[in-house]
Design brief:
This protein has ten helices and eleven strands. The protein is an alpha/beta fold.
């Protein structure tokens, strides 16, 4: 089995179950299987992401898989609305019609995230600050959303909670403070699992430095507070900045010494790009 398809087939199964075509056997059984020409149109200025998902959606429905590898070469490339870029391929009408909406939804969503991420990355690259995502992803879509971030030049934070132990407010409240929460995670004895501490003020940062915590996230720090924090940043400590940062405000946070900026909006607030697919009669 194609590994690309295998990696997303469980998701595709859920997506098609949600579309609920199984209730309409008469409709499905009567859809013609005539070969048609499909024309995928890119109608925005955008960075293309999600073509593997787009084409594997149709392969999921096909009895005999088709090779769309050449058409996937547009992945990660920028296209302009004015250029009217199109990709043409052939499918049985029943397959094209059944898979169209799911395929387009995935492609549009991924391209929107990649395009938005790239705009942040371009702003941050001069200061060599990484743009990273968060776990603020839609249930069932984390894989494609985080994939799209990487296409846009961003980097992934955690896929799941256990990729890195992250000391958050609730941990500190429950265990009695930063030190106590840090001690709890160290007690798990996970030699290679790093610990990241969410920090909310300079006093808490000083505690993190004393404890030898390697990674900290300065949460909702103002630019002036970040500059003060950088004065006590020891060698080897990683500074991640987070908290409602947008394209309109990111310039204020591009401060020398910051290692990364994490932005939840990459995956939950990306402006939508426009793609469509038209079907035509296959001229033999």
């Amino acid at each position: 089995m194609n590994l690309e398809l295998k990696s997303i087939e469980s998701s595709l199964q859920k997506f098609f179950e949600e579309d609920d075509l199984s209730r309409h056997f008469a409709y499905i059984s009567k859809l013609p299987a005539d070969e048609v020409t499909c024309c995928l149109k890119f109608k925005s200025d955008m960075l293309v992401a999600g073509l593997p998902y787009f084409f594997e959606t149709f392969n999921y429905l096909l009895t005999q898989k088709r090779d769309f590898s050449e058409l996937k070469n547009l992945e990660s490339h920028a296209v302009k609305k004015e250029d009217k870029v199109e990709l043409k391929f052939k499918l049985p009408f029943c397959i094209a019609l059944t898979g169209e909406r799911i395929a387009l939804n995935l492609l549009q969503h991924a391209s929107s995230i990649a395009t938005y991420t790239h705009q942040f990355v371009e702003k941050a690259k001069e200061k060599k600050i990484s743009i990273i995502d968060t776990r603020k992803t839609l249930p069932g879509l984390r894989s494609i959303e985080k994939y799209a971030v990487t296409i846009g030049g961003g980097q992934n934070h955690r896929y799941g909670q256990t990729d890195m132990w992250m000391i958050k407010d609730n941990h500190k409240t429950f265990f009695g403070g930063l030190k106590e929460a840090f001690d709890f995670f160290r007690s798990l004895n996970q030699f290679y699992t790093p610990i990241l501490a969410e920090i909310h003020d300079l006093n808490e940062l000083k505690v993190a430095v004393e404890l030898g915590i390697k990674h900290v996230m300065l949460d909702n720090f103002l630019p002036k507070e970040i500059e003060e924090a950088l004065k006590i940043k020891p060698s080897g400590m990683t500074f991640e900045v987070s908290g409602g940062i947008r394209l309109s405000t990111i310039d204020n946070y591009l401060i020398e010494g910051i290692d990364a900026i994490s932005i939840g909006a990459l995956t939950y607030a990306a402006p939508q790009v426009d793609v469509s697919m038209k079907l035509g009669i296959y001229e033999r």
